[in-house]
């Protein structure tokens, strides 16, 4: 076992503290990664604070991991020492069900093994990227192109693929009108990717305070949702809406913004249930859908796409001792647009 430095939450009600965690011995198909940077996702906060159910503590979160391979198992063929690599929200899956065999491990019938807070193959609880090193089976490690800095690449492993996947699946591109709800960690990557795909992109945010940022990121239009006229003016406008907000919203109001056969996709995951009036769907054959991250093949595709289009996350790099402050700032929407932890400060 390898003992490494980490930051972990002792309980749902306590701040994260410096500690040490154990990583398993490297098996024949494993890769040992020295972590350079780890992004802070809103999911980290939900999880360690018990918003999505009880957790096993202490728990080190983090599923936006970028680093360098420092050791490989004897049977590893995909990665070599010195490779720049990333790890996202999954570190394993059954590998045998239809979703896994089709490259959609995120929808594994048995449930994928999460990067943290999940039962690993050896029966231990997985610990995430708020640490200096991680051991991951090679099939769940992706290559980070040389043209993307490891710091701006880290958030792509969750925020990037979480928006890329539904944009690709529902056909964002030239001639399609796409709206991104919320301009945060997920939303800002949704804007960049939708713009690079060639779609006409609108940002829907609570106020006008992020308008200049949105236009600079690639949005064609920007509207404030706290203005009732916005929903009247934009009624029936969009082919695709990606809702990135991790808090309850008026789903019926946003469904009203869809054109015939339009789709509203939720990628944000609020702790509270959302309700919908069926007439918001049937009157113009609209659809309400959900999407979570992306498979390993699609994650690599997303990274290569970002390299081709020179895309990376907008980040604020912090030291490990600033994690708890960063959590409060995320909850206050006081980050533009992703905190990234410098793992060398663990």
From TrEMBL:
SMART domains: PKS_ER
All copies of domain Enoyl reductase (ER), residue ranges: 8-341
Top-rank taxon, per record: Bacteria
Short name of one Pfam family: ADH_zinc_N
Gene3D superfamilies linked: Medium-chain alcohol dehydrogenases, catalytic domain, NAD(P)-binding Rossmann-like Domain
Entry-linked InterPro entries: ADH-like_C, ADH-like_N, ADH_Zn_CS, CAD-like, ER, GroES-like_sf, NAD(P)-bd_dom_sf
Keywords associated with the record: Metal-binding, Oxidoreductase, Zinc
Reactions catalysed according to its record: a primary alcohol + NADP(+) = an aldehyde + NADPH + H(+)
Cofactor names: Zn(2+)
E.C. no: 1.1.1.2
Molecular function (Gene Ontology), one example: alcohol dehydrogenase (NADP+) activity
UniProt entry tagged with the keyword Zinc: yes
Family per similarity comment: Belongs to the zinc-containing alcohol dehydrogenase family.
Protein known as: alcohol dehydrogenase (NADP(+))
């Amino acid at each position: 076992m390898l003992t490494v430095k980490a930051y972990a939450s002792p309980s749902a009600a306590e701040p994260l503290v410096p500690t040490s965690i154990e990583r398993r011995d490297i098996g024949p198909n494993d890769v040992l990664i020295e972590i350079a940077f780890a992004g802070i996702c809103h999911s980290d906060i939900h999880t360690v604070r018990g918003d999505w159910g009880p957790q096993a503590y202490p728990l080190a979160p983090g599923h936006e991991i970028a680093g360098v391979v420092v050791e490989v198992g004897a049977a590893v063929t995909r990665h070599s020492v010195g490779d720049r690599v990333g790890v996202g929200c999954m570190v394993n899956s059954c590998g045998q069900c239809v979703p896994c065999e089709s490259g959609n491990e995120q929808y594994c019938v048995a449930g994928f093994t999460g990067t943290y807070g999940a039962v690993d193959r050896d029966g231990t609880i997985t610990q995430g990227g708020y640490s200096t090193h991680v051991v991951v089976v090679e099939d769940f490690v992706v290559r980070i192109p040389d043209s993307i800095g490891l710091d701006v690449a880290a958030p792509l492993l969750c925020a990037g693929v979480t928006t890329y996947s539904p944009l690709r699946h529902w056909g964002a591109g030239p001639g399609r009108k796409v709206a991104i709800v919320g301009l945060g960690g997920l939303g800002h990557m949704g804007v960049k990717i939708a713009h690079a795909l060639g779609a006409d992109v609108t940002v829907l945010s609570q106020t006008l305070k992020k308008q200049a940022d949105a236009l600079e990121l690639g949005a064609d239009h920007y509207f404030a949702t706290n203005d009732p006229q916005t929903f009247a003016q934009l009624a029936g406008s969009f082919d695709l809406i990606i809702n990135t907000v991790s808090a309850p919203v008026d789903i019926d109001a946003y469904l009203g913004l869809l054109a015939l056969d339009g789709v509203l996709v939720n990628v944000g995951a609020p702790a509270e249930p959302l309700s919908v009036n069926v007439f918001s769907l049937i009157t113009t054959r609209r659809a309400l859908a959900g999407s979570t991250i992306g498979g390993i093949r699609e994650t690599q595709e997303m990274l290569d796409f970002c390299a081709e289009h020179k895309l990376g996350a907008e980040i604020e790099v912090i030291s490990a001792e600033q994690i708890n402050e960063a959590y409060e700032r995320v909850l206050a929407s006081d980050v533009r647009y992703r905190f990234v932890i410098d793992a060398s400060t663990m």
